[in-house]
Amino acid sequence: MNTTPAFRTGVALCASMGALAVFSFLAALIWPGPPFALALAVGVAGAVTLAAVPAAYRGGRTGALTVIGAQVAAMLLAAGVYVDPSAPMWAVWVTTATIVVMVAGVALMLTGLRRSVVAR
Length: 120
Description:
Distance between the termini: 18 Å
Largest sheet: none
Keywords: Membrane, Transmembrane, Transmembrane helix
Shape: elongated
Protein name: FtsH-binding integral membrane protein
Radius of gyration: 15 Å
Number of helices: 4
Number of domains: 1
Helix content: over 70%
Oligomer: single chain
Strand content: under 5%
Structural class: mainly alpha
Number of strands: 0
Organism: Nocardiopsis aegyptia
């Protein structure tokens, strides 16, 4: 696996989105917002992301795949705001920005998952 600067930037973006997901779960406990089960699922995806980030940053393939999988799950869970008629418009905009950052992070991480070719 190649741990290029682009790959590490993707890991950092995904780590920040994981931290935001955990924070959003904690915020949902205090303020009214999404259903508790949805907030819990997003918080768990964020915690899984944060747990796998150190392994991914060091170049672990399993850690990188775990981060990518957790981010894809968080994206799919967040997409529910687009079909909820009671969701405020600011939530739609924040979710859109978050998904854009998640897609960028996952795309940058996918560049490092290619196996290195060794010249013989």
